[in-house]
Amino acid sequence: MSAPVIVGYTATKPGRDALAFGARLAAASAAPLHVAIILPSEGRSVITPPDASYDRHLRAQAGEWLDAAEALLPEGTPVTRQIRAAESFAEGLIDLADEIGASHIVVGAADGGARGRHRLGSTTTELLHSSDVPVVLVPRGTRKLAADTPLGRLTVAIGTRPGADALIEETVALADATGASVRLLSLLPVDLPATADTAAIRTAGSTAASDVLAAARAELPDRLGAEVVVAEGDSIEDAVRGLDWQPGEVLLVGSSRLARPRRLFLGSTAAKMLHEVPVPMIVVPRTRTQEGEQR
């Protein structure tokens, strides 16, 4: 059995989006599903003093929200309910993930995002600076997809430099667990002054992108195979807009090189992609094999 999938649930539309995708991911990978509500800990507020009756009220309310969440799941879906108190929503999810050995933390977009689009809020931003397990960012409206929509394809954004071991490992594990096909993607934007020789830069960049994609494809097991795509455009956003996206697709990106080992940090390219992609994005942390040896 695969490691558990955690959904950071809130009784909102984005919370239901996260629940819908988390349930699909868990079902596709034969993983246990944990739905978690994180409540404020006693020390989280210096204004309101601790009140046992209020804490009981909050937990009772959280239980009702989880009842409603379970009712949204396909009949017979096994689920473990979690109600935790923590200094922050993100901290509670990370502590739970470490405790149960979770494979992913799934969260919805912040309020105010358009349907089919991502929007980062304080919780997701904190997660993307501190989580040591992959975080799944789910766009608005994902709950509208049928519950049996398969995870048909994994698109893996490969950077311009070699060295995507953690991303490849996550791709192989997820493809093996779900049976999804793999598409390796490199972006070739040209966002330069008008005086630059964009044709020469594009040609050189295309060669470099192809070399990196070929190296990444060689790291995949033969049983998976992979489609290889170089997306071109005048900007990252333009290149992403020109791609086709399937209803059950998932995008995987690696953490920025600025991130500490075993931690997340959303790089500038991934952040730009986030504004345009209409599918869930999995951000994979950097790892290291031994102390001091980064991967």
Secondary-structure-based class equals alpha/beta
Give the CA-CA distance, first to last residue.
26 Å
In percent, how helical is the residue content? Answer: 25-40%
CATH topology of the largest domain: Rossmann fold
Cross-sheet strand order for the largest sheet: 3-2-1-4-5-10-9-6-7-8
Work out the strand percent.
Answer: 15-25%
Radius of gyration: 20 Å
Rough shape? globular
How many domains? 2
Low-confidence stretches: 196-205, 288-295
Annotated CATH homologous superfamily of the largest domain: HUPs
Q: SSE order in H/E notation? A: EHEHEHEHEEHEHEHEHEEE
| The level-1 CATH class of the largest domain | Alpha Beta
Give the tally of β-strands: 12
Mean pLDDT: 83
Biggest sheet features = 10 strands, mixed
* CATH architectural group of the largest domain: 3-Layer(aba) Sandwich
Task: List the main descriptive attributes of the protein structure presented here.
single chain, 295 residues, alpha/beta, Rossmann fold, 10-stranded mixed β-sheet, two-stranded antiparallel sheet, 8 helices, 36% helix, disordered C terminus, UspA
